[in-house]
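Session log. Operator J.P. requested a structure for one protein chain; no other inputs attached. Running the standard single-chain path with token output.
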Amino acid sequence: MTPSSCSVPGSRRCRKSARDWGDPDWRHTLPAEWRDAVVAPLEFSVHRDYETAACRVLGFDEDGDACYYRHTYLLKSVCSDDGEEFYEAVVYGEEVKGWRLRDGRWLLWRVFHEDGDCHGNRGFYSFSEDFPR
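Structure written below.
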């Protein structure tokens, strides 16, 4: 399914070619030994929700089929150490990237953020037969 441009309250979704986005770093965290095995995206659909610090990017090949997936989100809470000064801290977050391999499987990379860890734990790779979620 390829989303078209539309306006959603509190968010932004648009679809542009890789040239228009200046190549949105879809290779970042992709292991060098797998770069020749993935289908490269030519067009991207980006959806950002500014109220919840969330973003989803879909990349499409020349046939319009999804070949790249990324979502990130951070849930924050207002905290205080002394009851007088307040700050936002990450309570939970997740980043998932997926690249469709030429054999149809997906190579996935996930990293989780928990309890004030703004940089996230160490990410890990896995394979899936299904589109990432």
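Operator note: DSSP finds one helix and eight strands in the chain.
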